[in-house]
Amino acid sequence: MAAPQIPDKFYFKIGEVSRILDVKAYVLRFWESEFRLTPSKNRSQHRVYKRVEVETLQEIKRLLYVEKFTIEGARAKLKERMKQKQQQLKLELAGNPFKAELQKVKKELVKIHSILK
């Protein structure tokens, strides 16, 4: 089963995500509660999903529908994969000659993020 193509956008409404993943909106809301996903709200207080959240939901669907994991099993597998991604990122940064500069940029971005909150 090929993963559906996610449009090149920053934010998606729940109806769009429902169509992209071919699941009902109530299924997405259920997955939010089971996998501790917290989509943002727009000015009208409607759910809006970031691209990375849509990708995570796509992975959840694959684990549940293709690989036939239980909710608990999919939750554990997703957690394991997140740890692997974090470890890969740490390894990539460890050998990066620009590590010090990247850390400075990260600190600045964290400051900017806190100001914008």
What key attributes describe this structure?
mainly alpha; 117 residues; 5 helices; single chain; Multidrug-efflux Transporter Regulator, Chain: A, Domain 2
Task: Outline the structure in words.
This protein is mainly alpha-helical and 117 residues long. The protein has a single domain (11-116), classed as Orthogonal Bundle (Multidrug-efflux Transporter Regulator, Chain: A, Domain 2). The chain has helices spanning 14-21, 25-34, 51-66, 71-94, 99-116, and strands spanning 11-13, 40-41, 47-50. Strands 1-3-2 form a three-stranded antiparallel beta sheet. Strand 2 (40-41) and strand 3 form a beta hairpin. It is globular, with a radius of gyration of 17 Å. The termini are far apart.
Short description:
This protein is mostly helical. The protein has a single domain, classed as Multidrug-efflux Transporter Regulator, Chain: A, Domain 2 (Orthogonal Bundle). It has 5 helices and 3 strands, in the order E-H-H-E-E-H-H-H.
Q: Going across the major beta sheet, what is the strand order?
A: 1-3-2
Radius of gyration: 17 Å
Tell me the distance between the termini.
Answer: 40 Å
Described by strand count, sense and barrel closure, the largest sheet is:
3 strands, antiparallel
| Architecture (CATH level 2) name | Orthogonal Bundle
Summarize the helix and strand pattern as letters: EHHEEHHH
Please tell me the total number of domains: 1
Strand element count: 3
- What does the overall shape look like? globular
Helix content: 55-70%
The secondary-structure class comes to mainly alpha
Question: How much of the polypeptide forms β-strand, as a percent range?
Answer: 5-15%
Q: Average pLDDT value?
A: 88
Class, according to the CATH hierarchy? Answer: Mainly Alpha
Number of helices: 5
